[in-house]
Amino acid sequence: MTMRTDAPLKTSGAARYGLDVTPPGTVYGYVVTSTIAHGEITAMDVAAVRAAPGVLAVYTPFDPLPLRTPMSPLLGETWVPLQDTEVTYYGQPVGFVVAETFEQARDAALLVEVTYDRRPARTSLHAGLADALDAPPSLHGEPPTLQVLADGVESIEDALAASAVRVDATYETATQNHAAMEPHSAVAVWEDGRLTLYSGTQGSDLQAAQLAQALDVEPARVRALNPFVGGAFGGKGHAGVSAFLGAAAARDLGRPVKAALTREQVFTATATRPATVQRLRIGADADGRLTALAHDSWSSTTATPSFVEPTSHGTSREWYTTPNLAITQKMVPLHVPPTTFMRAPGEAPGSFALESAMDELAVALGMDPVELRLRNSSIAPPGRDLQWSSKHLDECFTLGAQRFGWAQRHRRRVDRDWLVGYGTATAMFPALRFPCAVRITLRPDDTAEVATSGADPGTGLRTVLSLFGAEALAIPPERVEAALGDSTLPPGGMSGGSTATASVGSAIAVGAPAVIDALVAVATGPGGLFEGREVAYADGRVFAEGDSATFGEVLRAAGRDEVTAIGTSAPGEEMTKHSFSSFGAQFCEVRVHRWTREVRMSRMLGVFDAGRIVHEQAARSQIMGGMIWGVSAALHEGLEIEESGRPANGDFASYLIPVNADIPTVDVEFVRYPDTLHNPVGARGLGEISVVGVAAAIANAVYDATGIRVRRIPIVLEDLLE
Amino acid sequence: MDFLAPTSWAEALECKAAHPDAVAIAGGTDVMVELNFDHRRPPALLDLNRVPELADWALDDGRVRLGAGVPYVRVISELGHLLPGLAMAARTVGSPQIRNRGTVGGNLGAASPAGDSHPALLAAFASVEIGSVRGTREVPVAEFFTGVKRSVLEPDELISAVLVTPPSGPQQFSKIGTRNAMVIAVSAFGFALHPDTRTVGTGIGSAAPTPRPAPEAAAFLAGELEAAGLWSSRGALPATLATEFGRRVRDAAAPIDDVRGSAAYRSHALSVMARRTATWAWDAYRDENRSAA
């Protein structure tokens, strides 16, 4: 297996992230944030700030950097700071101080005196449930309230009432921050009216487009570079305040500006996964076949509603066969930090509710939870004609159960001071593609370049580009250089929605024949090595009868620096023929201390059907990371927002994520069925699916160990006190 | 902010006398967090890392004199036999990086109710050696803490060392956290058997405004052990006695609800930890006898 091309650079510290760039003359920006959750800024006294050592500029809503609100088809509007005096959450960026050093900027920023006209802040999701609003239509354009009822059934309530076995329970999930290791940051440099921005993002072309709009300059005058990204997970889709303010201040001051959020600021000045409340009602017949499924969801969102966590549509809408389905999605606008996509938006918290409820149903039926899921596996989303293109979820469960020793779960297990329990859950995440363009270049030194704007936020996309390029050109991966993370490259490879591998692979599958055609034209054209002859391309060589040459030789003979082609791809008519998803089965073993009730995950296994696995190591790493994140969601992680709107735990000492000592064995297996109905390379997304179901599997294991059903994550010690 | 960097203990004391509002810093694992969060902005930092007198430990007149600047990593690797309870506590501190930097002296100076060293030091009946240009004094750890993050230290004083008598019996330390490392204690408990004086040492962490011993519970347990002749016979610790001891330790605490845990949980956990550490220590005491025989 080819090593990940970025691994030596990252492990040796040689990888240069956006913030590692320090052009000559760089000055430093520090963001000032609000200390109330709702109100209007009536005054900002910055006299002391201006007088502080090293300070070059102070920007506030009263003395702003002009920025326009960018709009993109994919992301919608992106908020830009300092354009008005309204405060709608605690920790909102309200000022920007630029000084000769970071320390001077930070020191001065703390001298700002802000006067507020305070207004009451709504910060409690629970308090807002009663007057929740309907969420906007889902990404697929489905309405927030949706029903599929069997013929003759008048309402979901009737269907539930007629069911032999019923479960009715309400679940809650916490607000989460992406907490990427690389805080949101930017280095902005203007030269001759052109901006170069070094900043971690999920798609360099998207970031460049947002900056160009915000700064009101020609898109061609903005270049965004992000060769390495220290984690994104949905939190670096929208361009951030560091990028907007850094770029605008750099233009204003005529100096390069470096701006980075502190870890505490990342918790409020970026965006979070909303908190949710979800009610699940499931009815089944005595054999465990679902007869009715109702999933009602409430999501927190911003004061002016923006992103809503689509928990009902992301799970119950599609996962199981049921003759009667009713889902609703509501939102509760609050004065809390912005909400946005986070890994498996909808599916991750939605699966905690649905898969916990399925476990409760299995208990009510006295049925093996694996068997219950096999029995209700869908061949298509309820009420839709389009069947799954390639679904091997049953095999994930049967293989996983065998490998995990699931059959052992019937023994009541006590291991010294620890109660041991097993849990399982389904994982699903839709297989998607985004429009994508990849440029393939053949060079005279017999190397090739595969280039797209995109980003590799740790996913392994850089390596995948090389592998696909090598495969399509039939040359060794070592001879294929991947170019990524530069907005001047053809637009594509956005790392979001678990789309990048399928998207770039499809584009390369189109581009490679095109570049080979171009090569052949060079070889056989006037002055070409095989002028006028019949030729064929194979394994990096052009073959004429009785003769052959490498593509480099062909190019050199013709005096060409390169031959290039751009392949493009986008979702197409396959969407009218099938439904597409990745699938998985999660298994967890937990230990609950008999006396002091700590919960520890002791073993986990995920088996996934994600189409073709392109790079084993990168795939396993993606899955392991997501599964560990699921442990985090179940046992550690939650941003606690106080009544005032202030996060109580906005730092890494108290916003808990697992440490190495919390994660013993994580086992990952794939069933390998290339899905060429979805795209020519047969690979489906496997980034986001990894987190889906894990929290439920853990809560289900906790129930198995203790008999205590915890319906809120993260699970805390107090939940398990008897 | 001034940065004072004395290179001897005498100079450090002079600095502190001249700058009583300077904040002493050793490993910086507490102080730097407070500075980074802008919780405090002292006019000066007094860096004690260059003071050689603080950097080592020695046996001194029958006691271990642990320099205030000795990091946890050395407590773990060098003092497991002389300060077993403290070494156990040190293993639960932060991460390897933090254990390389953090010091017991700094832990005391910060005086957090959640400091990991404190329950072990309380149980071992340790004392804090405090210096100033006015002289040196010794304060039992049980009298050192005066409130949340407050201690008996005067503005011109610095902690020079911790003084601990080597153990005459087994010691134990137990800590409950919300994850397996890098975690502030939800609650913690230190326990020591002192067979030479037929006494019991206790230390409660994260369950009161200050770290505190449970003297009534300790006296109760020692007295019951005495009454039953168990110190000499080394018979098994009755389960009911261990449970009652746990209950009395719990009653000695004054926990609150916070983001890490509820008061009710802390009370429960303390009773469990006290019962179990006492049992483990007593079993070790009995094993000592067996292996000696």
Automatic annotation (TrEMBL), chain A:
Query: Is Coiled coil set as a keyword in this record?
Result: no
Keyword list (alphabetical) reads:
Molybdenum, Oxidoreductase
A Pfam family (short name) is MoCoBD_2
For the Aldehyde oxidase/xanthine dehydrogenase a/b hammerhead domain, which residue ranges apply? 12-120
One GO term in the molecular function aspect is: iron ion binding
Q: Which InterPro entries match?
A: Ald_Oxase/Xan_DH_a/b, Ald_Oxase/Xan_DH_a/b_sf, Ald_Oxase/xanthine_DH-like, AldOxase/xan_DH_MoCoBD1, AldOxase/xan_DH_MoCoBD2, AldOxase/xan_DH_Mopterin-bd_sf
> What protein name does the entry list?
Xanthine dehydrogenase YagR molybdenum-binding subunit
Question: What is the species of this protein?
Answer: Pseudonocardia oroxyli
Automatic annotation (TrEMBL), chain B:
A GO MF term: oxidoreductase activity
Q: Where does the record place the FAD-binding PCMH-type domain? A: 1-169
Per the record's keyword annotation, is Endoplasmic reticulum included, yes or no? no
Q: Which PROSITE patterns match?
A: FAD_PCMH
Q: Which Pfam families match?
A: CO_deh_flav_C, FAD_binding_5
Q: Does the keyword Oxidoreductase apply?
A: yes
Q: Which UniProt keywords apply?
A: FAD, Flavoprotein, Oxidoreductase
SMART domains referenced in this protein's UniProt entry, alphabetically: CO_deh_flav_C (SM01092)
Protein name, entry field: CO or xanthine dehydrogenase, FAD-binding subunit
